[in-house]
Write a structure and sequence with these properties.
GO terms for molecular function: hydrolase activity, hydrolyzing O-glycosyl compounds. The protein has 500 residues and is an alpha/beta fold. It folds into two domains: 108 residues, no CATH class; 343 residues, TIM Barrel, CATH 3.20.20.80. Helices cover 30% and strands 16% of the residues. It has 16 helices and 19 strands. β18 and β19 form a beta hairpin. α6 packs across α8 and α14 packs antiparallel against α16. The radius of gyration is 26 Å and the shape is globular.
Amino acid sequence: MVDRSTTGEKRETERGDRGSLRPTRRAVVKAAGVGTAGLALGRLSGSAAAVDDPTPRLGTDGKWIVTEDGRRVKLRGLSPASLDYIDASWFPKSQREILEHATDGERWHPNVVRLPIGEDAVHERGLDYVVDELLRPAVDLLADRGVYAMIDFHLIRPYVEAMAHGEGMVGDGWADSLDGLGFDPHVDTDDLLTEFWSAVAPAFADDENVLFELYNEPTLPVTWSSYGEHGPAVTTAEDEWLLWRDTAQSWIDLIRTDAPETPIVIGSPDWTSRTRFAAEYPFEGENLIYAAHIYPANGLPYETVERGSEGDTEEVGPFDPEYGAPADDVPVVVTEFGWDPAEEFEENVDSGTTSDWGEPVREWMESYENMGWLAWCFDDTWAPTFFDSPGEGAAEPWELKDNTEQMGWFVREWLEDTKDDTFVGDDSDWIDLGEHRAYDRDGDGLYEDVNGDNETTHGDVNTLFEHRDADGVQNNPEQFDFDGNGRFGFSDILALLEEL
């Protein structure tokens, strides 16, 4: 880590005169005893529900990431190095080359790619450069390839009192000087977040394939630091989260001013490792997702293990309570994880193997249907890397790390295995009504969620009326037999209305 259809078979049914099954809209309204305004209530899905749209706008519903028509989505993907790093004149590959490689659809099959932007790009080149030259080409390329783009402001810095923390860190030996901290302590974190998202949020608010990752890794204060005014007051992990939430809520609100619908992925203090408090103390707002960063130094999901060198070990894990348990209540995406077995990483947080760490973590992540993930890093330099290259990195050619215990090949095969599983439960029954999909949400055999928005409202009555002649309805009368008389007709539309 550096900066670190089921349409069903046609069933014969006694219909009598088909003309008797064609009530007018006025007749529905009159018989139901409601006004047209009442009948039109509820969300009607449009193009976002189309089967041929691979990246419909995402939102959240409870613990799920969902499309506008209520289909549940599991994000699986990867991250390249920061786009500003890739854009350096000496870097051997272009952004386009890397993103096309990562989404080629033959060997690599992510449904989301993270797009990191480091703070140096903002300081040195400005936000016009960030938006127009780095992010816009990347977002458009991914949209053309049917892949979601997660714009990540790749900050690794204190979330309050940047200078006070910077001075304290230098004093304790984190770096030799303020210039060596990996962030600019002369720039206030609040000012930096405000500047970045005031430019990026409106620029990509209308891009339906985009998610925003607010802040890669808020670092300090944490329980074991004492810098600045806030440091001594933060004595528990809960204190960290509450201070972070109180600090970051204004940035969420800022984004929502310009991008009211775009999902926002939210990290947490201690390098995005305090996910467990998200369910108990959530942020205010809609379409919010919570991030987690997990490396072998965090241990295993359900076991306590010892890490470290002989004579200097510590017990770590299990980490399911920290990162898995909150997914029972809120959407969680692991926006960074990875490992490397090489000796040079033995003292690093990412030192691990496929058999001992990668495989159990894959099993754990896939056990949560609503937990997404993005592996780090689709690069030859920013560790842990998917690829090797000559020398110290930033070179060509890139060779996939295909040793059994490396992660490059493992992540590629994982994405291959799950390439058709973006939509959770998509192999369960649904009935195609054209621009809508009808679902049986409660398992009673009746498809009350006619417009597929994950609820039953007047909008479903409206959709059933307008699609009463659709093949999906006419070929599956039992699934729309809401009055229980053994056939589909006008009375079923009224019966569905009466259920509301």
